[in-house]
């Protein structure tokens, strides 16, 4: 079994498409197809079946994919150990991040790695929390950064940021004049929220039900940027920590009104795959994420102290 055949299989499974996988590896699509076909002959069965939008794993493919990912990761770790000078880790680290974490961490991580650890390459997948956690469970990512809204610890995870949720609305809206708004008062506010299943959307609809009203959800969207564009072009609002829309708030385009009765706290967690220890490169990336999260928390803490004073 050749490693390049296995790598082709894993990339096609990751991207759901021969064309996108070939682009990711920098090879021709025909070569990618031949490599997967060679692996299928070795395992004695089809690994993919065609769909209208690409390919999907067969039962055999689903069964062998975790082991395929593990073998690829082990080969990369072997190569890293053989080639990396002591104290200069190298290799690829795959992150699964929610959109706000992408805004918060990716640019800073890229700059720090370029300057101090040029041998480490980042691979970033962005999605809402449920999807990011699924990627971690399926071993598609080494490090997952996602949000939870209920109190309590999360197993095999560390909390890196906390923030209250706000109503994010155009600054010209009458509600934008207040500092706080009760959740119950949002019954008449048309909303754009993350597409379900999503922990925040599920929590909000559940809290509204306990107060005997329904939220007026006009749009469920799969990206923060789409929600932002919708707010910009309509009278819709969203519910989110303020720092997700920090640029728009700083420019005066949007306003953030803290939600109360009840307050809703978002905790951002960082988790790691339990199937194997983190590589030296992944350990470096987690340390840098902690550093960037601390830098984010310190100005927020100073701002809160000055406001309360």
Spell out the helices and strands N to C: HHHEEHEHEHEEEEHEHEHEEH
Q: Estimate the global geometry from the Cα principal axes.
A: globular
Number of strands: 12
The end-to-end span amounts to 67 Å
Q: What's the alpha carbon Rg, rounded to whole Å?
A: 22 Å
* Number of alpha- plus pi-helical segments: 10
Low-confidence stretches: 301-309
Give the % helix: 40-55%
Q: Kindly state the mean pLDDT as a whole number?
A: 87
Fold and architecture overview:
The chain is of the alpha/beta class and 309 residues long. Helix content is 47%, strand content 24%. The protein is built from 10 helices and 12 strands. It has helices at 3-15, 18-25, 29-43, 59-83, 99-116, 129-137, 199-210, 224-233, 246-250, 280-308; strands at residues 48-51, 54-57, 91-97, 120-126, 143-148, 157-170, 180-182, 190-194, 216-221, 238-241, 254-260, 265-272. Strand 1 (48-51) and strand 2 form a beta hairpin. Helix 1 (3-15) packs across helix 2 (18-25) and helix 1 (3-15) crosses helix 4. Residues 301-309 have low confidence and may be disordered.
